[in-house]
């Protein structure tokens, strides 16, 4: 059942439609029948992924597909070798690559499972209880047991368990911020019947699931439950739809396609070159060897694939997750870590994220004086005392407005508990929407608080300098002038009056003063907004609150400086998609918006080629959280629906944590970029070295196990070390990278090719050193010396293999910071850098100098002079790095001196 438009029907009409006796409620039997018919009052939860499914989803990655291709190629080579008895199977190579794939999936699975467990810990574990009328008796049940037509009694503090039409309301106020985003509780009225359908925020004769009663009491009839509630409709809108790739995933996908095309090109080129040499050698009397041409081409293709890249990127992201936890952020999926670092627009909810979600007195007026600071004097103390006593709240519980009044007195060291002992309450006249006033009798005083119009119209006197005199027109003009100033700043104003009588009467009152309150900005939010602005990131406020209130907060936070930068939900509804896409370029505040408006705003900003982060805590935020490039939910005040829709959760609900997380995200991307370019420079050296040597007609400088050792072991540890580098302190002074930027942007491609070429030169020289030492300098002499299976060829391959490994270790030192001398690594406190260097060196020595291991790797132990040549050639990329840094320094100094 899904009944709508109950705001256009009276309570009696609603009870007849739902066939319920409003005096007795449903019978237990009828309630059970309806539960069986309509189902439980619960939101359908998405089926949780099994650990196995999460594990295999980690493999849905283009780079993983490339690794699987490498496994298939190596498997084909191994099977051919075994079947034709031309060699042994490369089973170790296959095992190594499969281990990398499994390791990557394990790391990703552990992180995702841990994040889900953290979110479960944040969720409320029990269903709220409600008072329901069944069989003519009031019974307390779980809200999940409510059904259509139940009569529910509402009291201060209750969490409303379903959508309901009010039957009675007595000074009832409901906090609907989770659903509408409006921070001030809404006054409800059961007697009103509307003649047309209205937006949720304006239906004051209805109450909705998951909202909270903050004041008064009432009685209501359940109209919708479960997925048919307003919250349920939002939850339904979150299901389905395709998951978009994160910016990092898009970049890696492009890289995978590039490597795939490159690999295919290499296979064809090497095969053609080999065929030319085979034909030339055949004409010289040697037998044809078509298979070797194919195997060489495939081996070179394997060299082009950076097998360790996926595992290294996954590990770096996992390291980033740990850093994010320190920034009070739970990351649900690894790629989201980096996404936050690439955003250029942060859309934030106002209440609770940019503001404290706590109404606070910020200005007050008494004795013809305006105050902004909390100062104790006789008049101020009397004003604060009257407001505190004429309230039903405590510091921790009650209507937010009344809590603010009690807190106002508390800041002046006027404790409500002590005031009530001194002036005990003996009578009360509750607030109602007609009088717009509340009065209490405390000791000899009658205190009355309420709207300014109501208080002024019932005041005959004014308190001034501790004396009572008749209020004049000039007094009233001054009061309204101050009220206007407060209202222009979107402050909520309450007035206080008093008198001394035995019984509560609300006439001939003595006016005391005003207080002005607002849900103020978080103290750290303004600094965070300014830091984001410096980083080229625009902050956009999206709220269900009124435009004036939203703009007042936005102005304080430097989000907006002019009311023209604000737009309301009703204005958005009139725009086409194209018009909204243009409007979001110049607007920074969107007020009084619906959940659909939020989604439309996010889509419009994304359509302008922006990467958008969206924050929120309410159910109304969930669709836009899911629609953004990265959704950020609040961990403390956030609803379960919002957390489930988000990519990450802030554990402290603080906007400043977003700025810190963005900073971490940028640092993580910078580190990933360093690792990718570092690994690819090694692959370029492998490919170019092999390609050039094969083109010259010599045997390949590397065998398959050398390439896998370099790609998976020797390169991976330095790459992880680069991924653990501390972020650049100036990272938030840079502009966000463009959506179209790849790892190769901003000089990345040039740097990779240059260093790849330099390492290639070092490798080729190392390859020929054994021949030169043996006195072979001519092409023919070297070719005959380097015959397949010869001892000197094995020494040449060992030299090339070891030089490449050591080149990468020294190249790591330079890649840590391309603009600074490698000496800076001794200052950045990255201990992993030292470990990677010495562990890499020892591992390489292990495979070329350990008996038994050298047999597996087909290596020999270099002689003394060969070690010297290896070290000198390996230093080449570091020498070039230092030369470039020196050149940049001298150029900068020269330009500075000539300005």
Structure, described:
The protein has 899 residues and is an alpha/beta fold. It is built from 34 helices and 24 strands. Strands 10, 11, 12, 13, 14, 15, 16, 17 and 18 form a nine-stranded mixed sheet that branches. An eight-stranded mixed sheet has the order 8-24-23-22-9-19-21-20, sandwiched between helices. Strands 1, 2, 3, 4, 5, 6 and 7 form a seven-stranded antiparallel sheet that branches. Helix 13 (378-389) packs antiparallel against helix 14 (400-411) and helix 28 runs antiparallel to helix 33 (864-874). The radius of gyration is 36 Å and the shape is elongated. It starts with 10 loop residues before the first helix and ends with a helix.
